[in-house]
């Protein structure tokens, strides 16, 4: 049972109520009540924090603002004890909370009105946009190195990893999956299959967590389907698995088939292979793809289309001009594909580019 933390010396101004810790008193005993209140306000966000802020008088709120500016670093252990129970799942991670003057203004400005902001900071109030979609967390995360992202995700619980992967573009998610530890893959994919919807409030908390623990600490450095209703989330899983190297994909498919047999066929239907390209890429889109991709990318792809994949090569070359097709055929003899793994990597690169063109509206699928 938690007990109220003793206020630190000199923290008795205003009408702040002590924040109860979630663990050892010694760990956060040196953190003032105002600092703890500041962290809670920061983590709750504008809407949830407003009722708390409204109960603080101006002197107390000024103290909260000042304390945020004084915060240099709060480690994961302190943060877990101060903030919501949700973050206790991440106990032991290397996340952190950084403060400073800019962070103080951002937090307080989002939770109070214009008059109180000017009274506390002595500068004009600027309304912040907290509308859905304003948060750029997922855009920033997609720009990070997939290996570094996976290193961070390997320390989280599978259900959180699943939430994060589902917020990312499937091409980016598939790259990250290749770096995840094997014992993380199965439960993560399982969680993605089981959960077809995540509450917006949970999404918001996870976004704040990722921004705080990963992006702000370490810097910024799909195809259509017939899915609907409760199975719409399975489409992204199938697309993501299509871009994962075959060794990992086969193992994950075996897991899904054994644990989620009822949903496996839906996932499998949405997966695509190089042999299925004629079925998913319209004829009138082929010239556009050839125009958008550089010549060597096309030549290397065509060089991988041998054996069972030879009809795909003919499909592509048969939907561009005869003169251009002959030019590509002449270049095929100069390209050497050393191994099936190299061929697979070239094809994944092509599919990733294809998906990017679809998202940008360059082609229709």
Question: What's the total count of β strands?
Answer: 2
CATH 2nd-level architecture of one domain: Orthogonal Bundle
CATH-assigned homologous superfamily of one domain = Flagellar motor switch protein FliG, alpha-alpha superhelical domain
Termini separation? 57 Å
Helical amount among residues, as a percent range?
Answer: 55-70%
Major beta sheet, specifics? 2 strands, antiparallel
Tell me, what's the shape? elongated
Radius of gyration: 26 Å
Query: Under CATH, the topology of one domain is which?
Result: Annexin V, domain 1
Structure in words:
The structure is a single chain. The chain is mainly alpha-helical and 365 residues long. Among the domains are: 32-72; 135-214, Flagellar motor switch protein FliG, alpha-alpha superhelical domain (Annexin V, domain 1, Orthogonal Bundle); 233-271; 272-364, Annexin V, domain 1 (Orthogonal Bundle), CATH 1.10.220.30. It is built from 21 helices and 2 strands. It has helices at 25-28, 33-54, 58-70, 76-82, 101-109, 114-121, 137-142, 146-153, 158-167, 170-177, 182-194, 200-218, 232-242, 246-259, 261-270, 277-280, 286-292, 295-304, 310-317, 322-332, 340-359, and strands at 74-75, 96-97. The chain has a two-stranded antiparallel sheet. The model is unreliable at 1-26, 84-97, 125-134 and 218-230 (pLDDT under 50).
């Amino acid at each position: 049972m938690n007990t109220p933390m003793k206020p630190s010396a000199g923290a008795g101004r205003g009408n702040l109520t002590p924040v109860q810790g979630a663990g050892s008193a010694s760990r956060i005993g040196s953190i003032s009540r105002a600092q703890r209140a500041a962290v809670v306000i920061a983590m709750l966000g504008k809407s949830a924090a407003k009722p708390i802020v409204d109960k603080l008088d101006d002197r107390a709120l000024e103290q909260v603002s000042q304390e945020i500016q004084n915060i240099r670093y709060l480690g994961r252990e302190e943060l877990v004890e101060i903030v919501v129970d949700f973050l206790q799942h991440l106990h032991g991670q290397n996340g952190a909370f950084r403060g400073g003057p800019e962070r103080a203004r951002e937090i307080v400005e989002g939770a109070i009105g214009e008059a109180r902001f000017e009274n506390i900071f002595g500068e004009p109030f600027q309304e912040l946009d907290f509308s859905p979609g304003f948060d750029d967390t997922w855009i920033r995360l997609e720009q990070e190195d997939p290996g570094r992202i996976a290193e961070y995700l390997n320390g989280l619980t599978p259900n959180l990893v699943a939430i994060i992967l589902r917020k990312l573009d499937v091409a980016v998610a598939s790259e990250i999956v290749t770096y995840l530890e094997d014992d993380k893959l199965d439960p993560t994919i399982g969680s993605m299959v089981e959960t077809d919807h995540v509450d917006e409030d949970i999404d918001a908390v996870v976004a704040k967590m990722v921004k705080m623990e990963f992006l702000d600490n370490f810097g910024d450095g799909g195809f259509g389907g017939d899915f609907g209703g409760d199975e719409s989330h399975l489409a992204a899983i199938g697309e993501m698995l299509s871009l994962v190297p075959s060794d990992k994909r086969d193992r994950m498919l075996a897991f899904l088939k054994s644990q989620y047999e009822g949903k496996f066929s839906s996932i499998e239907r949405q997966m695509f292979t190089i042999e299925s390209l004629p079925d998913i890429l319209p004829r009138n889109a082929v010239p556009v793809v050839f125009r958008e991709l550089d010549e060597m990318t096309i030549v290397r792809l065509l060089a991988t289309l041998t054996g069972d994949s030879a009809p795909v090569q003919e499909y592509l070359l048969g939907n561009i001009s005869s003169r251009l097709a002959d030019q590509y055929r002449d270049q095929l003899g100069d390209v050497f594909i050393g191994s099936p793994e190299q061929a697979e990597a070239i094809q994944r690169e092509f599919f990733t580019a294809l998906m990017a063109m679809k998202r940008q509206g360059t082609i229709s699928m």
